[in-house]
């Protein structure tokens, strides 16, 4: 905050927060929230009279000696001196009793309601299920709402004027023309409250006037107000101007007796004025590179631009004129920040435009897959390159039994062949299952040895048989053809079953 530390911090009494404030802001005044303290009083105090005294100690203007005297008397009357809660509250008296805090400027803050109100307002825009992007967008919308409310309050303060209702019209009119609307309402209450102030005496000491006043229904308590006619300076023991930043009813009473028509300039804080954001207040000499100077200049430009935006949005012609003017001014301002360099501009125009550098993504690096993996092996012969369905040993073993049964033991004596496929009427037989082919009853070594020692193929034996049988009798030829036909029908029937 421009290297400025807060003078007063208001919290709910958390011990961790108390230690942090004492460590980070050792010179700041730590004040307990009045709302939380009243809640604790309601919980721990049963006597209604003692509750009323706590409320008096919390808000009334009194001296520390008066507070100590009343506290001791109340503890003796109600018998609560030895209770732990009362002892702990008394040790923290300088953090909540108004007798010790009346000289501290708190800008009217006694509770943490402003912070709690902001938290409740944020909950209307932000939900727990939102992503980071949605949360930022919602917060930006919330900030826009706050800025819109501020603009409405500023417009109401500048362009409207309240109705005068008090008898001190000059002072009330001056206050309405100087203070913001919210501060003016508080100042008006003090102007109306001077009717409850009674005059006691007035003494002159050189240029200083000493007024002795007293409150209505409080005649024994005198309030002495000092007023310097040359410097127009006031001093009041109530401390309202020190705490809130605007004159109290005792000062307004003296102004009435002195016939002042305006509030002295020294009693009007700049932060309470309606022109607090005017450009003339930002004309102070500040270092060029300081954060405070940047923030002040940024705030002044933002306030000045609001008038331009409202005027430029009224019509399409004014909008275009405003846009063109803003673009021209932006080019001039940017040119003043970074003056153009002809040599660099020519080099930029003639340079080669390349693709941007690709940023590496997060996560584990990708591992290249191996091109050569393990080859699948047949579960029957344990050889790679084929599966059990296309295994030569299993298929040849299934078909051999069919040919042996069809052509007789002659093929077996000559060494029946083990083939992979058989073409009978253009159909390829499907291999049998393990239960049908008898797989599993013989060892793998026997099957492999049998496949390696196989004789001539079935087609060769079939051709040889035809050539041999052609010289024999017609009767044996017919028998052979009958066997072939029977085998073919049997084979087709088996294929149809699969």
Could you characterize the architecture of this molecule?
The chain is an alpha+beta fold and 498 residues long. Among the domains are: 8-123, no CATH class; 169-272, no CATH class; 388-497, no CATH class. The protein has helices at 15-24, 34-44, 48-59, 64-78, 84-91, 98-101, 113-123, 132-159, 169-178, 181-193, 240-244, 249-258, 291-312, 316-337, 342-350, 392-407, 409-413, 434-437, 444-452, 458-469, 474-497; strands spanning 8-11, 29-32, 197-205, 208-215, 218-228, 233-235. The strands form 2 sheets. Strands 3-4-5-6 form a 4-stranded antiparallel β-sheet, with helices on one face. It is elongated and about 165 Å long. The two termini are 89 Å apart. InterPro entries: MULE_transposase_dom (IPR018289), Znf_PMZ (IPR006564), Znf_SWIM (IPR007527).
Task: Produce a short descriptive summary.
The chain is of the alpha+beta class and 498 residues long.
Topology diagram in text:
Blueprint: E1 8-11, H1 15-24, E2 29-32, H2 34-44, H3 48-59, H4 64-78, H5 84-91, H6 98-101, H7 113-123, H8 132-159, H9 169-178, H10 181-193, E3 197-205, E4 208-215, E5 218-228, E6 233-235, H11 240-244, H12 249-258, H13 291-312, H14 316-337, H15 342-350, H16 392-407, H17 409-413, H18 434-437, H19 444-452, H20 458-469, H21 474-497
Parallel strand pairs: 1-2
Antiparallel strand pairs: 3-4, 4-5, 5-6
Helix pairs in contact: 2-3, 9-10, 13-14, 16-21
Estimated share of beta-strand residues: 5-15%
Secondary structure: number of strands: 6
How would the global form be characterised?
A: elongated
Major sheet: arrangement of strands? 3-4-5-6
The profile of the biggest β sheet is: 4 strands, antiparallel
Biased composition (Basic residues): 367-382
Keywords: Metal-binding, Zinc, Zinc-finger
Region (Disordered): 363-382, 407-476
Domain SWIM-type: 221-259
